[in-house]
Amino acid sequence: MAALAGLALVAGLGGCAPSEPAGAAGVPHEGTIGLLLPEAQTARYEASDHPTFVAVTGRRCPGCTVLYANAGQDAAAQLQQAESMLAQGADVLVLDAVDTVAAAGIVAQAKRLGAQVIAYDRFVDGADYYVSYDYEFIGFLLGSALAGGVTERDAETEAEPDADAGPDAEDRPGVLLVHGSATEPNALAIAAGTRRALEGEDIDVLAEYYTPDWSPDKATEWTEAMLTRFPGQVDGVLAANDGIAGGAIAAAKAAGLDPVPVTTGQDGELAAVQRIIAGDQYMTVYKATDQQAQTAAELAVRVLRGEEPRTTAVIQGVPTVLLAPRAVGVDDVQHVIVDGHVYTTDEICVPAYRDACERAGLIGEDTP
Asked: In this structure, what are the phi and psi dihedrals at residue 105, rounded to the nearest 5 degrees?
């Protein structure tokens, strides 16, 4: 039977069902691919991963149906979404797990029904394939940048010890480590890479925190408390992603710190790029999420068609494609972000950031 080609998209936290297909008539139906994303609090998922995956799958496989659901950080909801997709005949699930331990149940059910699972961004034991970044290396990039930033600033200022810091305060820089969720393997890998980068550095780790659900609000609250606990001692904040970085910077500004501590980030969010241009955030790690989504989409289509795709590594027995991240500071915004067509200068240099963009050389004084 010939079927209408198209992409069936379903957002939301409940079950999944195809919407009206939107493709050329007369294209044979090749199969069904399900995309399961974990949450919408991190901007990349709905802004980049989801639309890129849908677009690439549509180009590579006009006869494929795509089901989509976002779990809203609810593992039980994600299980229901996966069950719904499998009940609708999904041949391949692309799974970014809310809880990688609980997701083993999704993998087991998929295998019982003859479907294959591609673990996306977060490793899931028993998956058929895995597409992600080397998160320990990302942590190493963050830790290295933090160490370099606080050491450079400390050398430049050569300031007298802060009177508020107390008589026992160390002269060497102090930092806070604000990790991601302790239940998420990527957060643990980032933390491990961070510690490896900081080993042997003349820096004090004052305190560290695993942020529940990667919540910027909780990161803000914790950072506020630490700034009170360690007055005048916080020279840097290792934030595990850009949302956490935004929360930590907000806490520093609320405490009246100027400049704010050297603060890292990850994901290359637009707001983070603007903070970098303005001098509030020291750097971010840019992961080409559109490239990751494109790779996962192409892999899903190949698996659906019974092909054996090439991979770059094997992690815990799972064939894996690892992509390369990029560290981005203010001097990298032009060639990585703008020239890489991630964001345009119009998107970055809105009125609030025009002066900063001029100082950074992204636009000229006479730019309309």
From this structure: -65, -35
Length of the chain: 368
**pTM score:** 0.77
Q: In what order do the strands lie in the sheet with 92-95?
A: 64-70, 31-37, 92-95, 116-120, 129-133, 318-323, 313-315
Averaged pLDDT for residues 166-186:
81
Q: Which token pair is 254?
A: 């609320």
The three-point CA angle 344-263-324 to 5° equals 60
HSE (CB half, 13 Å, CA atoms) of 13? 10
Distance CA(97)–CA(94), nearest Å, equals 9
**Class of residue 350 by CB neighbours under 10 A (exposed 0-12, middle 13-18, buried 19+):** exposed
Distance from chain centroid for Cα 81: 22
Mean pLDDT for the stretch of residues 152-163 = 69
Task: Measure CA of the first residue to CA of the last residue in the chain; give whole Å.
Answer: 56
Residue with tokens 């949302």: 243
Residues contacting 145, CB < 8 A, separation 6+: 264, 282, 283, 327, 329
Tell me: pLDDT of 142 over 80.
yes
Judge contact between 236 and 173, C-beta under 8 A. yes
Query: Which residues, including other chains, have CB under 8 Å from residue 243's CB and lie 6 or more apart?
Result: 41, 42, 43, 214, 215, 216, 219, 267, 269
- In 3D space, the residue among 53, 108, 61 whose CA is nearest the CA of residue 86 turns out to be 108
